[in-house]
Amino acid sequence: MSGLIELSATQLAADIRSGETTSVQATQEYLNAITKLDGKLGAYNEIYTDAALDRAKQIDAKIAAGENPGPLAGVPIAIKDNLCTTYGHTTCASRYLENFQAPYTATAVKKLHDAGAVILGKCNMDEFAMGSSTENSGFAPTRNPWDIGRVPGGSSGGSAAAVASRMCAAALGSDTGGSIRQPASFCGCVGFKPTYGRVSRYGLVAFGSSLDQIGPLGRTVTDAALLTGVISGYDPHDATSLPNDVPDYLADIETPIKGLRIGLPKEFFLENEGAIAPDTRAAITAAIETYKSLGAEIVDVSLPHSRIDIDADGKMSSFAVSCYYIVCTAECSSNLARFDGVHYGHRTGENVDGILELYSKSRKESLGEEVKRRIMLGTYALSSGYYDAYYNKALKVRRLIADDFVEAFKSCDILLAPTTPTTAFKLGEKTDNPLEMYLSDIYTISANLAGLPGITLPAGLSSDNLPIGLQLIGPVLSESTLLRAARMFEKTAPPIIPPMVKNSDT
Amino acid sequence: MSQKIDADVVRHIGKLSRIELTDEEMRTFPGQLTDVLQYFDKLQELDTENVTPMVHAVELKNILAADIPHESLTPDEALKNAPDREGDFFRVTKVLGAGS
């Protein structure tokens, strides 16, 4: 391991801009890393080798001509396969969209282009972003670079594995219930879900429209801040995007956090010893001590409706998880109705008797099990006679969960929590039990329900050498504070590198 | 409060969802959906009598756009991925008078 792929995206952009190195050289090194490692990891669904090198040449030519190609000058970046681009395919890791070529490019990706980024390829994911392990990909699972017998998390598992294994300088993912933060935590990188509406969802294939948010995965907090600044902003194509100006997220990222009030939700710490793996608990406790030493004021707060209950048999449950899976399945059943075998995507080859059979067979043949399960759960929750008991009830509980955060932020600036209850689990460990899989989002989904920004960053390794993630959650539009608090912690923690990368000689 | 999801209910939800189910799914879905719906029932523990439903995460009001025509996809772009096309139309199987 050596060379340009070890640089942060921020450093690489600076070096390319100053002529220290070239985008072609960096792009080539990343393509070499992909050739070397991706056969083992399966992080990419599609790689744009020629287009990336052409694009890198253009950026280098711009620099040679004295032009400024933008803040991501020539930096090789990967994007999740649910972001539409007019080039290549946009599959959402679904057989249904296997050959789909989008007629337009997502706003967030267009902003990357405008900032000078080189797009390396599209990353694998759980089909339509439904899952927490990337095992629900319609093509093949992605593996965790720290241990290829384990999952990278999900649904942005390809993006996280690619970032952690140095197969791209940074990546975009999407987070509906933790789909950026949970895989970033499992793979030992930084993952940031900004405030709902901060980044335009135009061109992001919709899963749960009131929850979905695009965000960056990177190897450093500063890289996450850099990308967030590039992709954020109001977009007339997305009526839910926020009109507020985008601040310079790098401006005060190095400012110490003395006096910052950090809240510890007692429901995530004091109660329910069993809800957090011992190594994770120890790492988070150590992180709290670090923040104290940085001058932060630690306060106890309560999020009663995000509490985790454990019954006598050790079975976990939570209002937030129940609420989330009603809201997201309801929204998904509606959003995925567009996959009808008529306008694009898979159409059954069988002879059908009427249009309903055309829909039902096309969907049967091309959608995966988890996607079908969620469409059906959502359909049921919205169906006549059950709407009030499930969907409307969940929307009310969603309000209670969001109000808890408003209350908590009266006595603190940000919240600190684990990102996930455990480190990365083994492939196949939870595939037969959808409920258990859903519980790996137990610490991340509340932020989506409340629309709040949340960041995860590495907080050390477990005794079996797997990354542990520390999560910070802030009020609406507190991106700058979160990034600064994350950066101050990062400065105290040694960087972590997966052994397969460390021992490789690329 | 949730009902038990047996094979008939699964078939019915499948029909509403426009999804034909495989034999394997007909075997596993009843139990799995019952488990998840039971889990959803946890919300009944909470009194939400006077709570206003929260539909969106960050609530914006009255998002209006000027009604100005703008360029959109050309028919060729819109039909590029069509499984079956005739001229400028998506071609489908007979809709009226057929099956269901």
- Average predicted confidence as pLDDT of chain A: 95
- Determine the oligomeric state from the structure: heterodimer
Largest sheet: number of strands, sense, barrel closure of chain A: 11 strands, mixed
Tally the helices of chain B. Answer: 3
The helix-strand sequence of chain A is: HHEHEHEHEHEEHEHHEEEHHHHEHHEEHH
Report mean pLDDT of chain B, rounded to a whole number: 90
* CATH fold topology of the largest domain in chain A: Amidase signature (AS) enzymes
Question: What structural category characterises the helix and strand content of chain B?
Answer: mainly alpha
Briefly, what CATH class of the largest domain in chain A? Answer: Alpha Beta
The span between the termini of chain A is 5 Å
CATH homologous superfamily descriptor of the largest domain in chain A = Amidase signature (AS) domain
User: What topology, given as strand order, has the largest sheet of chain B?
Assistant: 1-2
Residue share in helix of chain A? 25-40%
> What gyration radius of chain B follows from the Cα positions, in whole Å?
22 Å
| Biggest sheet character of chain B | 2 strands, antiparallel
Radius of gyration of chain A: 22 Å
Description of the molecule:
The complex is a heterodimer of chains A (506) and B (100). Chain A has 506 residues and is an alpha/beta fold. Helices cover 38% and strands 13% of the residues of chain A. Chain A has helices spanning 9-18, 23-41, 49-64, 107-114, 157-164, 181-187, 221-231, 266-269, 278-293, 319-335, 355-366, 369-382, 388-408, 434-438, 445-450, 479-490, 499-502; strands spanning 44-47, 76-80, 118-123, 170-174, 190-193, 214-218, 261-265, 297-301, 308-310, 316-318, 414-418, 454-461, 467-473. In chain A, the strands form 2 sheets. Chain A has an 11-stranded mixed β-sheet with strand order 1-3-2-4-6-5-12-13-11-7-8, sandwiched between helices. In chain A, a hairpin with a 5-residue loop joins strand 12 (454-461) and strand 13 (467-473). In chain B, strand 1 and strand 2 (89-90) form a beta hairpin. Chain B has a two-stranded antiparallel sheet with strand order 1-2. Chain B has a domain at 1-46: Histone, subunit A (Orthogonal Bundle). The two termini of chain B are 32 Å apart. Classes of the chains: A alpha/beta (506), B mainly alpha (100). The interface between A and B is large, with 76 and 55 residues.
